[in-house]
């Protein structure tokens, strides 16, 4: 083992193979190159919060006006990401992965972030099962019913959401320092899957959460470019979709697309965390109080403005504008409740 890092024990020998010395050394390299920049950007978040608490209000940046007003577009969108009409999301749990990939949705976002408790067991098993899914080797048998689950021939396109910049990984220490959960999730997934994905005619795709500004997008761009060069894969082959789910990022959508223009295909309205960000950022301003969450729909003025600006920005730059997640789920065994649940999804999307 490399004396510069320490990893918490992984009991399963099969899962342990995913976290090979070569894989972990790649994560160490990412950490050494980019973690100090991440820490600086996190400090900047605190400085901006102090400004807001003192009465400052965010606005479109004067220094990036030329980016917003000039004509440019993103590099390209691969064929298997052209249709994003229906996406499904859930944690990278074995049965969930199979059902989501078989669901008939166009893409499945395997989520290491909001929907997954980041225990070491969950993180390591998630990476293992995603690797099996990409190899078309994942299956599951329900111990109670005996029902078998296997992948269909043409499953949904897999997109992975790593953790946000603010979340650490305490089970992997580099020089006694916790690394970034985002760098860990990205590094492990990319290292173990890029060859299989490229051989299958696809590529590593990512959903990037919780960014606050274009400088944080620039850091992801630097990571993607470094990775493509290191592994000698085509420029721009790694693709991402950015969740616009913070109030500050909403003022920098053009800039975020521009920073990631070689490696991005779209923006997504992360509505629930956007509302949370609004509350958190303006916590000391009595003029920004919100009513009960059920009343803050996409028809509310500030939410409607945010979504319409995202659509306008994406279409101008030839990127996908993707609607936010509908949290309602089908209800088995109760036709009336299920009908109401699906109607809420329908109403939400219109």
Automatic annotation (TrEMBL):
- The segment(s) forming the Malate synthase N-terminal domain are 5-65
Q: Where is the Malate synthase TIM barrel domain?
A: 157-350
Any one Pfam family match given in the protein's UniProt record, by short name: MS_TIM-barrel
GO BP: glyoxylate cycle
The EC code for this enzyme is: 2.3.3.9
The UniProt transmembrane annotation reads none
> GO terms for molecular function, please?
malate synthase activity
Identify the enzyme class.
transferase
Kindly give the InterPro entries that the UniProt entry links to this protein: Malate_synth_sf, Malate_synthA, Malate_synthase_CS, Malate_synthase_TIM, MS_N, MS_N_TIM-barrel_dom
Show the SUPFAM superfamilies listed in the entry. Malate synthase G
CC annotations in GO: cytoplasm
* Coiled-coil regions, chain positions: none
The record's similarity note reads: Belongs to the malate synthase family.
What is the name attached to this protein's record?
Answer: malate synthase
């Amino acid at each position: 083992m490399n004396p510069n890092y320490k990893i918490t024990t992984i009991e399963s020998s099969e899962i342990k193979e995913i976290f090979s010395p070569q894989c972990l050394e790649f994560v160490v390299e990412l950490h050494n190159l980019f973690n100090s920049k991440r820490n600086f950007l996190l400090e900047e978040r605190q400085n901006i919060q102090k400004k807001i608490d003192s009465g400052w209000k965010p606005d479109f940046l004067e220094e990036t006006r030329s980016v917003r007003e000039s004509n440019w577009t993103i590099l390209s969108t691969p064929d298997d990401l052209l249709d994003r009409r229906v996406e499904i999301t859930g944690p990278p749990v074995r049965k969930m992965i199979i059902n989501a990939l078989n669901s008939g949705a166009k893409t499945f976002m395997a989520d290491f972030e909001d929907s997954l408790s980041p225990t070491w067991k969950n993180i390591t098993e998630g990476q293992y099962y995603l690797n099996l899914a990409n190899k078309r080797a994942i299956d599951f048998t329900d111990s109670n019913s005996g029902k078998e689950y296997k992948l269909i021939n043409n499953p949904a396109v897999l997109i992975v959401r790593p953790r946000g910049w603010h979340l650490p990984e305490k089970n992997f220490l580099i020089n006694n320092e916790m690394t970034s959960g985002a760098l860990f999730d990205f590094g492990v997934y990319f290292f173990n899957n890029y060859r299989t994905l490229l051989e299958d005619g696809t590529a590593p795709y990512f959903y990037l959460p919780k960014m606050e500004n274009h400088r944080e997008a620039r850091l992801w761009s630097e990571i993607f470019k470094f990775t493509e060069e290191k592994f000698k894969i085509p420029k721009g082959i790694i693709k991402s979709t950015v969740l616009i789910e913070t109030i500050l990022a909403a003022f920098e959508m053009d800039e975020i697309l521009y920073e990631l223009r070689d490696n991005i295909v779209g923006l997504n309205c992360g509505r629930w965390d956007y509302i949370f960000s609004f509350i958190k950022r303006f916590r000391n301003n009595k003029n920004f109080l919100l009513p009960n969450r059920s009343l803050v729909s996409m028809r509310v003025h500030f939410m409607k403005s945010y979504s319409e600006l995202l659509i306008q920005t994406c279409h101008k730059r030839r990127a996908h504008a993707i609607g936010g997640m509908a949290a309602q789920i089908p209800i088995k065994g109760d036709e009336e409740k299920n009908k109401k649940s699906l109607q809420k999804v329908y109403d939400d999307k219109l």
